[in-house]
């Protein structure tokens, strides 16, 4: 295997980038290659490569793993110890190449039953450990940790080397005390993972809870978990209690699961499950939350309570019917009714009607209505898909709102029945320069529409768009948060991830969909009539209008082109 054959690296276009040739037999026969020359050649390979650093590392790791079979002298494990002694003189390359050769050796030793020089290499690794700790060889604690692990250096090896060096009396405790002193230094410098790894490797049981507290307070939780696991069940129980006391339920739950401690901490386990279900419900992921209950009645009752609290009546009925929870429902109904006034309702927006559009006449009537409007609000809904790697669902409905009316277009049915008419009608709205279209994070909807209905021209080009979220600085809480900021009350988003492909939609789904489009118009009217918010934030909405946008796939790194200026006539029409 020649260096020349293995170092040529392809660029992104698949062409080979030529590199200078460095001795054809350099890596094919290591009998007469010194560690210094080997590291130099490795550096040249890295220097001339064209991949990014991570890819270079992987390519070189493969190279080093393969050349270990090419008879390095006196043996692969010993040869690499000598390399580690040499590496500090390579300065910037030292740390990366040290990790490189140690990881390659680890892989090599897993595949080879015996490297032929493993016993001698252990003692040399113990000597290297002493030299690094003593300061005569410069490597950091992560390299020390890997050397000890890969070479399986034991206290007996360190004690043997210490005796040979005549630095201490030939007693086993001297090696242990030496290692403990080094580990305590790591703890003081807060290098907890390296300290824990060495404590575990040398079977040194550090007692007391203060060490555990220090790791948790420093947020080095992997080190805390590793150390508690090494110490055994009593320390694991203390760790769970510490996590629970700090309301770190996920961490406590993970320890319980990994170490089969559910019977010791049933309350912690259940509380974590409840917190997970609550977070999913707050995001509107009701189907996922239901799956997480695993049909546990107590958790199902909690999920029903959350649905009642959110005013999601059809979800309450659905869960109670499916799991026979009627008795629980009767005892909790009065509590849920108190929460109906927490969210904005459609009648508060003075909307005169919500029209379902799934046939030609209704579609044409809607188009005629909007062609007489200066401003409309837009939104879309589609069925959530929780399967990783699967394609997103098709956009199911599109809501278009004026100040008084909301039309909800059944895109799936209209596309199947009258695609040409749908294309023409929606084009007259979306591509009209006389109608200002309002959205909230509408680029996401645009992308989804183009993906769902790529055959239609209406979703490939837009005129006069205003993304309302761009008018406000540091907007929090999404559209609901913005509505609360401007109108004084937020939106109930619990139905956001419901099944939008079911027909007919429930009355609550229709209201949810209508509100999302209608509230955009009402927020805009407030913005248009006020120069600043109640907090004194200046509102500049005209400069946020995008008068032209193409919804086409672009190359990575490029931006969608849009005209930056609007004509004075357009601005005057909207004032």
What would your notes on this structure say?
It holds the Pfam family DNA_pol_A_exo1. This is 3'-5' exonuclease domain-containing protein. One of its GO terms (biological process) is nucleobase-containing compound metabolic process. This protein is of the alpha/beta class and 575 residues long. The protein has 3 domains: 35-203, no CATH class; 267-323, no CATH class; 346-533 and 541-546, Nucleotidyltransferase, domain 5, CATH 3.30.420.10. Helices cover 54% and strands 8% of the residues. The chain contains 26 helices and 9 strands. It has a 7-stranded mixed sheet with strand order 3-6-5-4-7-8-9, with helices on both faces. Strands 1-2 form a two-stranded antiparallel sheet. The model is unreliable at 1-12, 14-25, 168-172, 334-341 and 554-575 (pLDDT under 50).
**Number of helical runs?**
26
Q: Per DSSP, what share of the residues sits in E-state strands of 2 or more residues?
A: 5-15%
What's the story with the biggest beta sheet?
Answer: 7 strands, mixed
What structural class do you assign from the helix and strand content?
Answer: alpha/beta
> Which spans of ≥5 residues are poorly predicted at pLDDT below 50?
1-12, 14-25, 168-172, 334-341, 554-575
CATH level 1 name of the largest domain:
Alpha Beta
| Overall number of domains | 3
Into which percent range does the helicity of residues fall?
Answer: 40-55%
**General shape:** elongated
Rg estimate, integer Å? 34 Å
Average predicted confidence as pLDDT: 82
CATH architectural grouping of the largest domain = 2-Layer Sandwich
**How are strands sequenced across the largest beta sheet?**
3-6-5-4-7-8-9
Distance between the termini: 75 Å
> What name does the CATH topology of the largest domain carry?
Nucleotidyltransferase, domain 5
